[in-house]
From TrEMBL:
Transmembrane segments: 12-34, 92-114
GO function term, MF aspect, one: phosphatidate cytidylyltransferase activity
Upper classification of the organism: Eukaryota, Fungi, Fungi incertae sedis, Mucoromycota, Mortierellomycotina
Species in which this protein is naturally found: Linnemannia exigua
Family that this chain belongs to: Belongs to the CDS family.
GO annotation, cellular component aspect: endoplasmic reticulum membrane
Membrane topology: Multi-pass membrane protein
E.C. no: 2.7.7.41
Pathway: Phospholipid metabolism; CDP-diacylglycerol biosynthesis; CDP-diacylglycerol from sn-glycerol 3-phosphate: step 3/3; Lipid metabolism
GO biological process: phospholipid biosynthetic process
Protein name per UniProt: Phosphatidate cytidylyltransferase
InterPro entries: PC_trans (IPR000374), PC_Trfase_euk (IPR016720)
Chief localisation class: membrane
Top-rank EC class of the record's enzyme: transferase
Length: 213
C-alpha cells in the first residue's frame, strides 16, 4: 500500500513494520547492554576495554525499577503464557521506546522532504558517491532530524548535572591567577565561617614577581 507520493517505494506496511521492529530491536539491545558494566560505566582511561573489569555505581537511568501492570495488561499477557503482575524496566528502556518511536514515525519525514526537494529540481539522487544509493545526503537525510532530537531529548530528560570535586577543580584551573585567588579567598572565608578551617593555618604565598633568588 503506497505511503506517500513523494516516495513511491515507501509503503504503509513497511512504515508500520519499521516502527514495530525498531522498538523491538531497541529494547533488545538496551536490555543486552545493561548487563555489561563497560556499556554503562564512565570510561576514565582510554585504554579500558570490555575485559578491563570496569566497576562503578550505575547511574539511576540504568537501574531497573519495578512497574506494576494494569489489570487489562495482566489478562492480556496471560493469553500468551506469561503469568506476572509486574515488569522490571530501567528508565533507559523507556527512553529507548520514545527515541525508537521518533526514529520510526517522525525522522522519516526528513527523507520525504529530501525526496520532494529532489523532485522539485528533477534529480534522482543528491550525488553518486554510493553506487545504487545516491550520495551521502541521500543516506543521511533522516539523521538530521534524529540527531537534533537526540541532543535535545538528552539535554532535557536524561542528562544529570552531578557536581563533583574533579569538575569544580577543572573549572577553577581555567580561571586566571587573580580569579583563582579570589575564588580561594571566598572559599577560605566560607570554610572558616563553617568551623572547618583554622584561620591561622591559611598562608598565602606571595606572587612570583615578589620572589627573590
Amino acid at each position: 500500500t503506497p505511503l506517500i507520493k513523494l516516495s513511491p517505494k515507501k509503503t504503509v506496511e513497511g512504515f508500520v513494520g519499521g516502527w514495530v521492529m525498531t522498538i523491538v530491536f531497541g529494547m533488545l539491545f538496551a536490555t543486552l547492554f545493561l548487563r555489561y558494566p563497560y556499556m554503562i560505566c564512565p570510561v576514565k582511561d582510554l585504554r579500558a576495554t570490555a575485559f578491563s573489569g570496569l566497576t562503578c555505581d550505575p547511574n539511576p537511568v540504568f537501574i531497573p525499577v519495578k512497574h506494576n501492570l494494569k489489570p487489562w495488561m495482566v489478562s492480556l499477557i496471560r493469553h500468551v503464557g506469561f503469568r506476572t503482575t509486574h515488569v522490571m524496566l530501567a528508565p533507559l528502556q523507556w527512553h529507548v521506546i520514545i527515541m525508537a518511536c521518533f526514529a520510526s514515525l517522525i525522522a522519516p519525514f526528513g527523507g520525504f522532504f529530501a525526496s520532494g526537494f529532489k523532485r522539485a529540481f528533477k534529480i534522482k539522487d543528491f550525488g553518486q558517491s554510493i553506487p545504487g544509493h545516491g550520495g551521502i545526503t541521500d543516506r543521511m537525510d533522516c539523521q538530521f532530524l534524529m540527531g537534533l532530537f537526540s541532543y535535545m531529548y538528552y539535554q532535557s530528560f536524561i542528562k544529570s548535572s552531578a557536581m563533583t570535586v574533579g569538575f569544580v577543580l577543572q573549572s577553577a584551573i581555567k580561571l586566571k591567577g587573580a580569579e583563582q585567588m579570589e575564588l580561594f579567598d571566598h572559599l577560605k572565608q566560607y570554610l572558616i565561617g563553617q568551623g572547618l578551617l583554622d584561620e591561622e593555618s591559611c598562608v598565602i604565598m606571595p606572587p612570583k614577581e615578589a620572589w627573590v633568588s
